[in-house]
Amino acid sequence: MQVSAQFIFVICHAEWLVRDCAVDDSCVLCSRCFHATDHSEHNVSFFIAQQSGGCCDCGDEEAWRVKIGCPHHPPAAFSSKAASDQLLQGSQATPRAGPALLLKDDIPSVKNYPYRATFPLELREIMSRTIGYALDFILDTLDYSPDEPSVPTNEEELRAQPSADPMVKDQYCVIVWNDDKHSFDELMLLVCESTIWQLAEASDIAHRIDEFGREVVDMNTNVTRLLEVAQTISHIDLGVTIRRAYDTFREQVTAVIIEWLLDLTRSRLGTDTLVLREIIAAELLAPRRRDSGSLNALATQAISDIRDHSRLNWMFLYHTKLWKKPRLSLKEIYASVLTLSREHKLAVGALSVSHSFPVGAYTPQLAILLLYITVWSTRTCLSTVKPRLPSSTLLFSSSQSLP
Which run of H or E residues covers position 370? Predict the structure, then answer.
């Protein structure tokens, strides 16, 4: 199998589907690889990526029924007969659901990569610790975040919300979440009527809600006033939450950290474009580091119910607590991990098919995320079968978005 830095699609990129060559409709090419290969008289279609997160499958031999001969992804030979035997045994084995097949320390670096850079081992350890701390901060914050937007019915219920604020200050934020049911004009007028913002500011707020997925529309210590604002907005079935300012700030920081991690997947160390992605993958597959004594009741219950305590499993569980922009960015990060190597796909695929999440944790968004990852990684687990999936699988192709 050829391993290469595969192209990650972002919004408005063209994706090419060649049904005569692809194993199924989820296998696509970027424009660069499509135009570099011969598909004369093939059944070809293309579509425009509506959101980010998919990748070009050109470098993945398991995605194609025939060799497409892309000059940008020449086939790479295995370095030894043992490696070939291992690949053969893995492809012929019957896939079984179970614990993660590969752990952080079991996944080797991507082989046959010609642009490896040399750097001190101490630097790699520092980068690993930094990324691990960043991921743990995200999870520590989301421990206290609600699963769904809802408005407390009274002040007592509001103050009883789980919070990481050690001071438990009575300063709160009203946050409006995006949806596909309300127009810009409707949202702008509602914000103007419910808050102090004028029409111009309300227009900016509406655009930020659409772009990022949520926005703070009010913040103060007048709890009665904030409850009135939130309940007024929620009357039109728009997602609204009231959270302590401390927790809201931490959640905003998690979004920045996720964007930073996404930037790292697109960065290189010297000539090496894979090492940072490998470190992120290793830290995602590593167990979460957290003092269980400081967990709230929900996270404590989740610990007893989750079979695998890797950070990636926690990220899957907390996916629905995030909003539009960080969700899409995480999808890109997952794609960058899946496209590293066959071993990485197997490790992530083993997690996505062997969850044991708490009752009520499964939501449509989480189910779609897991199915998206499972379909992608199952191509590797079932490499000898290569089933022709139904056309509905296109829903989880690279061009499609997760909620």
Answer: helix 364-381
β-bridge partners, 30: 15
Q: Residue 228 gets which letter from DSSP?
A: H
Residues 302-332 pLDDT 10s: 665 566 678 998 898 899 899 999 999 999 9
Q: Which residues pair with 14 in a beta bridge?
A: 48
Do 268 and 276 touch, CB atoms closer than 8 A?
yes
CA atoms within a 13 Å half-sphere pointing along the CA-CB vector of 241? 21
Distant-in-sequence, close-in-space partners of 291: CB < 8 Å, separation ≥ 6: none
CA distance 217 to 184: 15
pTM listed for this prediction: 0.73
Helices (H), 143-273: 155-159, 184-194, 199-212, 223-234, 245-265
Per-residue exposure over 315-329, b if at least 16 CB sit within 10 Å of its own CB, e if not: bbbbbbbbbbbbbbb
Distance (Å, rounded) from C-alpha 24 to C-alpha 63? 8
Over residues 60-94, the pLDDT tens digits come to: 777 888 888 888 776 554 443 444 444 344 444 44
**Amino acid in the structure at residue 345:** K
Contacting residues for 210 by C-beta, under 8 A, at least 6 apart: 178, 184
Task: Give me the domains of the chain, ranges plus CATH numbers.
Answer: 1-95+382-403 (2.10.110.30)
CA distance 105 to 362: 29
CA distance 287 to 54: 26
